[in-house]
Structure formats: structure tokens, C-alpha cells
């Protein structure tokens, strides 16, 4: 059955970036973390949940996977559509030498084809993340581990949210004005200590165009590279000139 781990705030996700004041009074841009983009209303199942119950929950809540919790509320695995699919295929294709599915390198598929509970169906150990991990680190973790979502757990290992690929990609929906402000204040003025009046910055659909005159090729290259790493930047158009 569904197990709401928490309740989403009425406002949904909190802002992706925010500013705080350092001791010297300068504004510091804080990069968004998993807790800024994760979903806090999580659909999870207990380890004893049956096959039919899991599918019912997934269909009702429009999710493709559920964290699996033990009796104490700790995340012990994740059951996804991929874990449930072998039941539809049946155990025979995964049995015996020379079978096409067995030869594909899949492991444990036959056991899942005859499994009936979340504990038997789930993929384990679970690949989880923490709320204070940066969004870019979570994206890297998903990419390297080949997963579509990460249960978010607190320091005690209890489920507090879930973050999906769509959630981490939400940084690219930042308004152009915010991106431009970060390029000017965080990169040009802050990191490189350059004169902001010497450069023009425009943002269209996340694509940043930088114009102006740099004192050297090295400074121009460092500027463009730093702009690429500003959160929400899709691409950079380099229109910065410099002495040969």
C-alpha cells in the first residue's frame, strides 16, 4: 500500500538558488541542493506488499517506481516497472542454456518472474542520496549508476523524499534574468574581478551570449568556462575579443 513519507509544502519546490550575506557584506550565490528540487510526498511500499498491490499503487499515483521500506521505515530497496515486467514474460525465457534473455546478461530475472512481494521483487541495495547533496552531484550519480530516480534519506537512513531526472533538470528552467545576474555578479565581478561595464551579457532560452573585450586570451577563456558552470546555462556563445 502507499506510504506517504512526508507532505509537500503548499508552494511545492523552494527556489533553486538564493543569496546570503558573507561577513564582509558581499552576496554569495548558493547552489541548489537535492532538498531544493526533490519531491517530499513520496509513494513507497512496505517490504511485504504484494505484486498486485504494488502495481495498483503505481497506476493510482502515476509513478514508475517505489522505494521499499522495512518495518522501521528504512529504505531497503526500490521496486520499479522493470522489476515487475518479468512476471508478464514468465520464468521460461530466463531458464536453461542458450535462452535469449538469459544470454543478454540479465541476472535475477527468473527469480523476479516468480516473485510475489516487494522484498522479492526490489532491486537492492538501494542507491540513495542525501538532502544536502548538490543537484549536479545527484545528476552525476544518476548518470553513472544508470538510475532514473534516487530516494532521499536523512542521516538516520529514513526516507524524506525522492528526486528524479526531471527534478534535477529543473535547474534549466531558471529565468534568464537570474542567470544573467549570476553571470555578472558571480563570475565577472566576483570570481574574475573584472569590470562588468566591459562586457555585455544576454540570455535567451538558457543560452548565454557574452560580448566585450578581455585583456588576454587566458582571461577570455576563463570567463567563458566559468559562465558554462553557472546553474541553468544551456550553452554559451563566445563573442569576447582579446589581443592576439
Quick summary:
The chain has 244 residues and is of the alpha/beta class.
Low-confidence stretches: 1-29, 100-107
Q: Just name the CATH architecture of the largest domain.
A: Roll
Give Rg in angstroms: 24 Å
The tally of structural domains comes to 2
Order of helices and strands: EEHEHEEHHHHHEEHHEEHE
Helix content: 25-40%
Question: How are the strands of the biggest sheet laid out side by side?
Answer: 3-4-5
Number of helices: 10
Q: How far apart are the first and last residues' alpha carbons, in Å?
A: 67 Å
* CATH H-level superfamily title of the largest domain: CBS-domain
Number of distinct beta strands = 10
The gross shape turns out to be elongated
Main beta sheet: 3 strands, mixed
Mean of residue pLDDT? Answer: 84
Instruction: Return the structural class.
Output: alpha/beta
Keywords:
CBS-domain; three-stranded mixed β-sheet; 10 helices; single chain; 21% strand; GMP Synthetase, Chain A, domain 3; alpha/beta; 2 domains; 244 residues
Can you characterise this structure?
The protein has 244 residues and is α/β, with parallel strands linked by helices. It folds into two domains: 18-170, Roll (CBS-domain); 174-241, Fe-S cluster assembly (FSCA) (GMP Synthetase, Chain A, domain 3, 2-Layer Sandwich). 33% of the residues lie in helices and 21% in strands. The chain has ten helices and ten strands. It has helices at 34-37, 51-61, 81-89, 100-103, 109-113, 118-121, 135-145, 165-169, 176-191, 217-228, and strands spanning 18-21, 27-30, 45-46, 65-69, 75-80, 149-153, 159-164, 199-204, 207-213, 235-241. It has a three-stranded mixed β-sheet. A hairpin with a 5-residue loop joins β6 (149-153) and β7. The longest helix is centred in the C-terminal third of the chain and has 16 residues, at 176-191. The chain is elongated, with a radius of gyration of 24 Å. It starts with 17 loop residues before the first strand and ends with a strand.
